[in-house]
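Give me the fold.
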Amino acid sequence: MEEQLQKIKTWLGTGSINIFGLPMSGKDTVGIRLAERLGAKFLSSGIIVRAIEEATNQGVTHGGKLIPSNLFYDWVLPYFEKPELREYPLILSSIGRWEGEEDQVMSVAKLSYHPIKAVVMLQLAESDVIERWEAAKLLNDRGLRPDDADPEVFQTRINEYREKTLPVLKHYQELGLLVPVRASAPRDQVFQNVVEALANFASQTH
């Protein structure tokens, strides 16, 4: 795996890898681990948005809906231009989930010296997502956001992904940037699958 990680690191430079998937698919888990192994910085749109919501006492996403594009542009995209990130590659967790946002994300990323080099799609069936959600609820696992205790809110998040984010991934696929990875295995295996898929992608696009 070390050889594969080195190949990814060399190919990536200060570029970005954007990771998408259904709720509970492991985006942040994979993203944080990948960032650590590549010496990259990790940015999650969900974490950024929830922190701003809390700081400003707003509940934009509490019903499971995606943040409106105008707020996404104002709240999330400025992170790309932070001077302290200039020298680092970025691992992104679902930055730009609404159809149409991907063009703006790619533009801002490129201008800030973090061009989008690949987009990982963690593939998980909706039935597996529900199963993980039920298990996390039983175990009081970190996988649940506070508002996910409501099954209707969680289902809304799934619907938002299907209706608004899948078209984003289709666009990335058309651009030759999409790297699909099966995410139904245990966490260590999923991470290994991601590293292997990215190393193969780096070899093909170097």
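The chain is about 55% helix and 15% strand.
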